[in-house]
Hints:
Layout: H1 3-11, H2 18-24, E1 36-39, H3 44-47, H4 51-61, E2 68-74, E3 77-82, H5 84-98, E4 112-116, H6 131-146, E5 150-154, H7 162-174, H8 177-201, H9 204-217, H10 221-244, H11 262-271, E6 275-278, E7 281-284, E8 294-297, H12 305-320, E9 324-330, H13 334-346, E10 355-360, E11 363-365, H14 380-398, H15 405-421, E12 430-432, H16 434-438, H17 445-462, H18 475-496, H19 501-520, H20 528-552
Parallel strand pairs: 4-5, 4-9, 9-10, 11-12
Antiparallel strand pairs: 1-3, 2-3, 6-7, 7-8
Bound molecules: arginine.
Amino acid sequence: MDCRQYIAEKLAIDGFDAGAVAGYIETPPDTTLGDYALPCFFLAKVLHNSPVKIAETLKEKFVTDEIITEVNAERGYLNFKIDRKSFANNLLSDIAKKGKLYGSDTIGNGKTVCIDYSSINIAKPFHIGHLSTTVIGSALCKILRFLGYRVVGINHLGDYGTQFGKLIVAYKLWSDREKVISGRLKELTRIYVKFHEEAKLNPALEDEARHYFHLIEQGDKESNELFDLFKKITLEEVDKIYKLLNVTFDSYAGESFYNDKMAAVVDELKEKNLLTVSDGASIVNLSEYDMPPCLILKSDGSSLYATRDIAAAIYRKNTYDFDKCLYVVAYQQNLHFKQVFKVLELMGRSWAKDLIHVAYGMVSLESGSMSTREGKVVLLEDVINKTVEKAYSVIEEKNPDLRDKDRTARAVGTGAVIFGALSNNKIKDIVFSYDRVLSFEGETCPYVQYTITRCFSVIKKAGEPKVFSVPEMCDAEYDVIKELGRFPEVIKSAAEKYEPSFITRYSVDLAQAFSRFYIDCKIACDDENTRNFRLAITSAVKTVLINALTLLGIDYVEEM
Ligand code: ARG
């Protein structure tokens, strides 16, 4: 339970969503006037009254209770005093009661959200560039599910295009079934790179590639078998990484899935007079909207990336009847999505407004990394493995007697990678640094995981909390309580802004509040009541930090 939300719900201001009102509630640094304050200025326009009057009217209506004990209207502000003890008491028992479900909600019940994320390209290496879409998308799935939404996670595979013709040519010339099966993605990358080198000298190879790509499209058995083999190998490889990152999908309908669904799109565009021919290609002119044209068909009649996305959006709407469809894709594709959404709008799809491009920035590696060793691309698997190895050596150094070092290193290492990618506002470009993500100090996953182990060890030594009545609280104690109470709202704003980083940030804030409490207050103190109260705080912190990490797809350990 969050005080702001609680106040906003009690206020129940006509025409305003409680969540929105809660967002306006401030915590004044000087608490003599109140613990919380609502500036009423934003209400003036809609309620056709002055902020001063509004504050007074709201005060009249407000019924105080055991938690909100006092309310005052002052120059356009509503000031609230809360009873910290009953707040703490309600909150701690709420967290203890709800446990794993603390922070969850039903606001999404009955609503469906499709999330297109990770969306890897078949036969191409799974590199560090895919990290953000994978972990942001996965976290959004978990967050929205926690809020009651039905979520459909979709891996819109890049499994269509002339590159598959190239691969078949390369396979026939320089590889074979055995080599591909044993060498896997590395072998596919090797022959793909070789194709490009050779094609520079022998352009006829390009024609041959186009020929094989047409064969795939026409359903030729041999070509499709090869294509399926490449697809199977890629998916098996990435699946290992998805498992490590706790990532799952409900659908793998990729680009080729829409092969037989695009003719209808083209027909409809023609029917609605949206299609024009320019240099032999069919396009939708978007100059009126300050955008370059959206390419629908090439001059040879083959479809494009945008065509498949238009077909995919229509298919998803028909199949899942989504309330929102999110595309977690790098900001480099901003224009692509603006065009696709606009074309759907022009086609008369009123739900085009529910399509949302959740853009994010780039991830690169610090210089001096292994990028040179690996060629141009930095494989995600190598980044994870290296982080896990480094985590292992830190554990080996700090706690050589730890029981399950492998499992701990895996939780810490993969957690550090995920948390690192989710630490910043998603639109920012980030530079990945092994040392930084693995540091035990600062805003990192090991720090949060370590805080959880501290909670476990305190409770193991001092026992589970028993009944208590909330004593007078010191600042350090109350700060933890305040943080604990914020969790449900943090999840909701993370969902609203599509920003899992709100949860990483929050988990660090809570861990820091706990550290101050841990230093300032002796938890296993002699006074039984105080001890039980502090143990209840500790247990609540453990629950909430675990819930936070779980929403991000990160594991915890009890000891490290
Ligand atoms: N496979 C694409 C890429 O790697 C991303 C696909 C994103 N999803 C979509 N519906 N276009 O760039």
